[in-house]
LLM class F420-dependent oxidoreductase
Amino acid sequence: MTNLGSLGIWRASTQVDGAFAAKAERLGYGAVWLGGSPGGDLAIADELLEATETLQVATGILNIWQDTPASAAKAFHRIEQAHPGRFLLGIGAGHREATAEYRSPYQALVDYLDALAAEGVPSDRIVLAALGPKVLRLAADRTAGAHPYLTTPEHTRRAREILGAGPLLAPEQKVVLDADDTRGRETGRKTVKFYLGLRNYVANLQRLGYEDADVASPGSDRLIDALAVHGDGDVVAAGVQAHLDAGADHVVVQALGEDPWPALEAIAQRLL
């Protein structure tokens, strides 16, 4: 398994380049996670790795409905040959509403993992986008671990219990560096409300105790405050630290707003 360090950055693959990766590395972040279902040959991973020396690059996540196991394996082996030990293949089943060819996500993941194994991709260089207990157990049994998205420290605590002590647990956490409570919450809500129309995320939030009124779009204040921590540097850093305290090995920070760097710098100053 790659050495991710304690903190990483989640960013859409269309919003990063070599300069972004180099700055992340200078600040002490261990990884950049390529979000937004990056697909194809993952050439952006090469660009980020070539611009850095120790930074890890992970997909967060490659959508199994959009890329075949053969194409994912081809990209993995190319990147691994050029940058040994610095790439982690995160895969997931996405969500039902956005995928025409959706079938049982669990069985589809099992089949995809079988195919990756047949293509020679090591299981300890794969992570699963896992929310519920069944896929978390699959992540523990068949891969390096889990990359839960849109979760809370309580989910991290429960996920660690299911995974056990060994597997990687790398949850994503959204943050907004804004001391204005109303404005910061609304910045978070603009991003979070999209996911409240997707059943897999809503079901997971309900398992965590959020009620219908909380998860109804655009989301209650209580829900938004948990999923997109907003405040000054101490507050957003504490929101990230809460996942580490709950059992995460590595927290993937998604900084919302026009410029991610003030939040990422504030967190790095306090936690790295």
Summary: Residues 240 and 260 are 15 Å apart (CA to CA).
